[in-house]
Amino acid sequence: MNTQRQDNSKTDLVYAPLGGVGEIGMNLSVYGLGNDHKRSWLAVDLGVSFAQEEHLPGVDLILPDIGYLVSERKNLAGIVITHAHEDHFGALLDLWPKLKVPVYATPFTAALLESKRAGEAGVPEIPVTIVRPGSRFNVGAFDVEMVAMAHSIPEATALIIRTPAGTVLHTGDWKIDKTPMLGSGTDEAKLRALGEEGCLAVVGDSTNAVRDGISPSEADVEKTIAGLIRNAKGRVAVTTFASNVERLRSVALAAQECGRDVVVVGRAMDRVVAISRELGLLDGVKPFRSVDAYGYLPPDKVVALCTGSQGESRAALARIAEDQHPDVTLSRGDTVIFSARTIPGNEKEVGRIVNGLIDQGIEVITDRTHMVHVSGHPRRGEVEQLLSWVKPKILIPVHGEALHLSEHAKLGRAMGIPEVVQCRNGDLVRLVEGKAAIIDEVPAGRTYKDGYLLVQADARTVADRKRLAFGGAVSVALAVTERGELAADPEFDMIGIPERDAGGELIQDAVLEAIESTCETLPRKRRGDPDALAEAVRRAVRAAVSQRWGKKPMCHVHVLVV
């Protein structure tokens, strides 16, 4: 790694991703202004990733490790949130209390954050400074301007970050949509003006850098969904991300066109709809019906707008598919439209619901066959347009896995951008024209949300659960005299271990034999040492189970001297 030292007589601008680079999700970026001895910091976004059960049993969410920001808290000017997707603002409730610095967000983002906070017990109130897209404000030494960008959530913004050492465009999540269903889309004029003003660096979204062309418009989705609803004979259910208000609007307008009422099903959807109504984002859309009305509406006069597009077991669609929902049912001849992309890692859960619906005679429509979803991220043609408007001297690809970052970097080089820096979480990048480089590392890692608790990724908790899932466990309790002789029969319990071996013999008999044999044959001196006895029994039990099963369980031995 290049570890060039900086000239401490100058004020340099640096960038460090603490999450979201080399991966999808958990976005956290920091910008520093100063020198090696002292820097003022600005944080952008504070997001989560969703744990895959097989990989992290029992873990609910993955959050960035903010230990470095905690150590620099007195120099952290604030946190600016680009938009209200969970991978960009979902860690605020858990991590903000460790920082307690000003937070800046748009009205929709602030309202959604407050709604989440109100729904969780014991969560402190977070004071948020509300700033509207297009506004310009100061965060410490940083001059920040929010630029409206098209994306799959209201009020998505890029940030123009102006400093004495140069100006950076942090794109956030974005695309170009010439016919958006909400707002005016990406602010091309402001981005072109930045190019004329002079842009030192672009820190940009790489999610769809592997795809050629231009993303389809949300207007195309509305036309497709309207056609599908128009041709449907029975009930129609549409599932999408609750936060995609533009999609909710598209579905509602399509339903209105076809003479159907919309029923909202799912608490997350109810929450977003209420906020959107309050902020005027659903102006012109008929009021939605409550879920209680579903059973009274004729099948050809209803569209159910449901949560559960990612296969969540407790979401509305999963309960409907299992015929467990108290108010909403589907039957043969009805239609379900999955108007969302399946997030990698959720394929099994989504597939289970899709297959269950099809087995019931319900028609399932996805984006594999119809234009019922468009991405909120830019394809290569859109990235080219933005870079041609802004004309940066430096490009840093972020928000993507290795392939996405690499393709974004290749595109930047092909367009003639003078410097392209590929970095990963924890890399400290100097943003200086002609000398852009990775100059150091800062601590970066992961924290797990485990129930109500936050645990470090390197803690034994998750590793032990993996071992339990693979090999089960044996718990042994021994009562021994001071001379190390058994004072009572051993007590033990086996969890997650087969009852019998391949020959039909009880494995518990082998475990008991291993315990008793060890206690009898161990030298008297070691038997008199409770720790030595416990370790000997632990090894013997694991070996006995392995010999008959082929797997070594966890084993805990408690020795009580009586």
The structure class reads: alpha/beta
Annotation, overall tally of beta strands: 27
Strand order of the largest sheet: 8-7-6-3-2-1-21-22
Total of DSSP H or I helical runs spanning 4+ residues: 16
Major beta-sheet overview: 8 strands, mixed
The rounded Rg comes to: 29 Å
Whole-number mean pLDDT = 93
The span between the termini is 60 Å
Spans with pLDDT under 50 lasting ≥5 residues?
1-8
**Which term fits the overall shape?**
globular
State the helicity in percent bands: 25-40%
Q: Can you give a write-up of this model?
A:
- The protein is 31% helix and 24% strand.
- The protein has an 8-stranded mixed β-sheet with strand order 8-7-6-3-2-1-21-22.
- α12 links the parallel β19 and β20.
- α4 packs across α8.
- The radius of gyration is 29 Å and the shape is globular.
- The N terminus is likely disordered.
Secondary structure elements and pairings:
Blueprint lengths: L11 E8 L8 E7 L4 E6 L4 E2 L10 E4 L2 H5 L4 E5 L5 H4 L2 H8 L3 E3 L1 H12 L9 E3 L5 E4 L2 E7 L8 E7 L2 E5 L17 H10 L3 E5 L12 H14 L4 E4 L5 H13 L3 E5 L1 H12 L23 E5 L9 H6 L13 E4 L8 H13 L3 E3 L14 H11 L3 E5 L3 H13 L4 E2 L6 E4 L6 E5 L4 E5 L2 E4 L3 H12 L1 E8 L10 E5 L11 H15 L2 H4 L2 H20 L4 E8 L1
Parallel strand pairs: 3-6, 6-7, 7-8, 12-13, 13-19, 14-16, 14-17, 15-16, 17-18, 19-20, 25-27
Antiparallel strand pairs: 1-2, 1-21, 2-3, 4-5, 5-23, 9-10, 10-11, 11-12, 21-22, 23-24, 25-26
